[in-house]
Amino acid sequence: MKKMFVMLVAMLTMAICSVCSATPGKVLDAEDAMVAKLFAAKDYKAVEAFFTPEFKKDFDAKSFDNFKNSLGALTKSKMLSLEKFDEGDQVVYLTAFEKMPNLVYAFIFEVKNEKPLIAGMQFRPLQVEQPQAAGK
After folding, report:
1. Cβ–Cβ contacts within 10 Å for residue 129, how many?
2. CA 85 – CA 67 distance, rounded (Å)
């Protein structure tokens, strides 16, 4: 009887731990894939399906071309954070492009029925201070 009780407690503990450490899963994977395709895309038509109708009004083909021309090619991208909200997510990346080496990019996703769409994006340059040499 004691062995059964210990086994039951162990199983319940493992079940609770597995639920608590669950990852965001397929929604985050879809969001990450959208961002990767957006950064790699050469043509607006390849990525416009990723945007909400409202965001398409602000980020059209001309804006996309300006975005791509002002940054150059992506050289590095690393996800920094994920914030989950009731009806969407914010995913923040540290990126480097040919023309802008240190940018923090935040993407706002609207999520309905586990289908994310980009509802906004914002970037800011990251100022990296070089340490001064000793004796100067």
Report:
1. 5
2. 27
Phi, then psi, of 56 in degrees rounded to 5: -60, -30
- pTM reported for the whole predicted model: 0.73
Which token pair is 83?
Answer: 């914030």
Cβ proximity of 74 and 80 under 8 Å: no
Distances (CA, A) of 31 to 14, 23, 27, 83, 114: 29, 14, 6, 12, 10
Asked if 99 and 71 touch (Cβ cutoff 8 Å), the reply is yes
For 105-129, write each residue's pLDDT tens digit. 999 999 998 899 999 999 898 876 7
Residue 1, both tokens: 């009887």
Q: How confident is the model at residue 21 (pLDDT cuts 50, 70, 90)?
A: very low
